[in-house]
Amino acid sequence: MPSNFEVSIIHCKDYSHAKSAISRSLELIGGLESIVSRGDRVLLKVNLLAPRPPEDAVTTHPAVVAAVIDLVKEAGGIPIVGDSAGMIHPGATAEALDISGIQAVAAEKGAEIANFETTGFEKVDVKNGKKLSSIYMAKPVLEADIVISLPKLKTHELTLFTGAVKNMFGTVPSRIRKDAHTLGTNELFSQAVVDIYSVRPPDLAIMDGVVGMEGHGPSRGEPVNSGVILAARNCVALDMVSASIMGFGPDEIITSKDAAERGFGPSSLEEITLQGDPIEDILMDFKRPGRGLSSLPNPVGKLLMRLHSMRPRIDNDKCQECGACIKNCPTDAIELPYPIEIDKELCILCFTCFELCPHNSIFIQRSWLARHLRP
User: Fold this and answer.
1) Which numeric CATH code is attached to 6-295?
2) Model confidence over 290-300: pLDDT tens digits?
3) Which residue among 114, 126, 232, 290 is least packed, with the fewest CB closer than 10 Å?
4) Before 218, cis peptide (omega within 30)?
């Protein structure tokens, strides 16, 4: 049985070679058949940060998604492609699935789509969490037999690097993500990210590094031809190697350090066995990101995050009392009798009620800052 701390590195010059590169990367760590059994429901957790086209290098490239769907089906698994967009506004995930090209390849390949905004969330405890004692996690993640993380090789203005560990940040609703960001510092935010990751660590991670992003990532940076596919059974190991390829030192990525300290992966590169192409042929020096809001004093950054608010509200004049919002709310924030309101203390900003209301009687109330940042 291969070590959990093996990472395969395969040179891949463009996306036309994605499937062969991914297939080879998986063979080097024991093959997908050693992970996926016939009949397994396999969630492909993509990076669907924002509604951007593939060439912008913001999201997992559809060619990578298509290749992994094929490989999962060849192994006898049932592929499900899922995520929720990082942008805090309803409908962002559906828009991102479309513009990124992921929706189209999933349909073409016959894979299910799990839009976490509409599939619902379930409350789970975070064992030994540092910042979060419990969270709401997307049901498809918890229900999957196998989870495969498909991150994009990118810089990040707060954490310097975003990889397989942070990719699980998209499995929780907007309120939890917003609360994590208001913690203010890289260290505290990274601890919250690892808290989320710890609930359901993926069984496999495949890094889309054919075209990465440098500079002001994860969405405002510049695409860079990094020409690599990486795979590992352990997300922390994959992130350590990926970050080193980008030119980051082993102590700079707090998500990796914190996850390693909790026993989720190796504590150093020396514990990792590299397979495939020599890492020396892949090493680059990515432009480092600016710090964005994290460069502001903590009280200012936290204030701006709090002033940027979006909440679902019910227009009871339009409400047909069908109960769809009550039935689908994961936190029971909407209760009878009519006319009904949404309890803002219980609401986790998953926007499921907005997405599933058949009568368009739910609207989004935006703060002044939210209206001006996104008309």
Assistant:
1) 3.40.50.11440
2) 765 554 455 65
3) 290
4) yes
CB 136 within 8 A of CB 348: yes
3-state secondary structure of 58: coil
The whole-angstrom separation of Cα 74 and Cα 59 is 25
Reported pTM = 0.89
Choose among 70, 216, 228, 43: nearest CA to 140: 43
Going by C-alpha positions, the residue among 243, 247, 241, 248 that lies closest to residue 269 is 241
Nearest alpha carbon to residue 153 among 227, 95, 55, 67:
227
Contact between 159 and 99 under an 8 Å Cβ cutoff? The reply is no
CATH number of 308-373: 3.30.70.20
Query: Rounded to whole angstroms, how far apart are CA atoms 126 and 118?
Result: 23
Helices (H), 90-148: 92-99, 102-109, 116-119, 139-143
The domain segmentation of the chain, as residue ranges, is 6-295, 308-373
